């Protein structure tokens, strides 16, 4: 496990974007403690003791303070450190531990954060929790406003023509666009949809594999076309002129990618299924992945063809149509 003598900010105080795998420390502690409570209750004290004394026994351990995609900030550990913690605890307990879900695409706020003891760690974590609660409340209010705007739009135009889109980028350089996918349909005639999938020719030598699969050749809802980014941007720009509004899932990044291609969405009404789900779904997470949203809406999908821009656009449209029935 990596260690450092003291915590220090990132170089020059700049916020860096890191697309590696990170694991929330609290998720590690909570999930493994619950695992023992459910399966090995007589030994749960070993796990609790391990985490309570972790800072004293790993005084030079490097945590990372990172802002996630939902704008909340957490203590996380890098993949190698996660693996080291897991192996050490498995040796102590002589039990296998379940894997914990990772996060990626985080903004590094501080890359070497250390604690003297459990109490100082808890105090810092509570300060993060208080700030995160405020952020979640703000996002909840924003999601409600988003749903209200959608509701008003449907009142003024009950059967709009929409375009759902997705952009796939290279996992190690998010400005490199690999695919553009979109689908157009009238909301009351979804079966008459037109789907498009463009593979960017000049970026064929880039392939995702470390954090997401390379599924660019697995478009299910039509035929893919290879073309330059300029040509794909021109075609997309022409088609968005023919619809009433646009749909995306967690699309704040996609809008930035399209802007980098010279496509301006300024003045266009864009609805985000992630925000709509936050306002309209009950009992689920505040921030939905596309996969989780499809599952909760009981929409059939093939998991192994996600992360193809065309497929994701079609699935986003399906989710949007289902959410529109909840308005």
From TrEMBL:
Residues 163-322 form the Gfd2/YDR514C-like C-terminal domain. One of its GO terms (cellular component) is nucleus. One of its GO terms (molecular function) is nucleic acid binding. InterPro entries: Gfd2/YDR514C-like, Gfd2/YDR514C-like_C, RNaseH-like_sf, RNaseH_sf. Coiled coil: none annotated. It comes from the Eukaryota. Pfam families: DEDDh_C. This is Gfd2/YDR514C-like C-terminal domain-containing protein. It comes from Pocillopora meandrina. The lineage of its organism: Eukaryota, Metazoa, Cnidaria, Anthozoa, Hexacorallia.
């Amino acid at each position: 496990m990596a260690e450092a003598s003291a915590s220090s900010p990132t170089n020059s105080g700049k916020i860096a974007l890191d697309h590696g795998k990170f694991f929330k420390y609290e998720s590690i502690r909570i999930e493994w403690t619950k695992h023992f409570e459910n399966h090995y209750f007589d030994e749960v004290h070993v796990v609790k003791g391990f985490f309570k004394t972790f800072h004293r026994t790993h005084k030079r351990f490097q945590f990372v303070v990172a802002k996630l995609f939902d704008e909340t900030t957490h203590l996380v550990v890098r993949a190698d450190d996660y693996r080291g913690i897991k192996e050490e605890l498995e040796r102590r307990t002589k039990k296998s531990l379940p894997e914990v879900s990772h996060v990626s695409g985080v903004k590094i706020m501080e890359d070497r954060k250390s604690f003297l003891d459990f109490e100082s760690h808890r105090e810092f974590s509570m300060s993060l929790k208080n700030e995160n609660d405020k952020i979640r409340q703000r996002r909840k209010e924003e999601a409600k406003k988003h749903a209200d705007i959608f509701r008003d739009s449907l009142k003024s135009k009950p059967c709009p023509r929409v375009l759902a889109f997705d952009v796939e980028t290279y996992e190690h350089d998010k400005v490199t666009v690999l695919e553009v996918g979109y689908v157009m349909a009238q909301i009351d005639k979804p079966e008459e949809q037109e789907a498009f999938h463009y593979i960017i020719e000049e970026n064929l030598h880039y392939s995702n594999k470390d954090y997401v699969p390379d599924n660019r050749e697995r478009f299910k809802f039509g035929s893919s076309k290879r073309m330059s980014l300029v040509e794909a941007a021109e075609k997309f720009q022409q088609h968005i002129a023919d619809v009433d509004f646009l749909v995306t899932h967690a699309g704040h990044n996609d809008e930035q990618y399209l802007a980098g291609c010279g496509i301006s969405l300024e003045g266009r009404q864009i609805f985000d299924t992630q925000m709509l789900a936050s306002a309209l779904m009950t009992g689920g997470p505040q921030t939905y992945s596309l996969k989780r949203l499809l599952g909760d809406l009981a929409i059939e999908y093939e998991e192994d063809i996600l992360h193809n821009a065309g497929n994701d656009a079609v699935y986003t449209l399906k989710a949007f149509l289902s959410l529109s029935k909840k308005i």
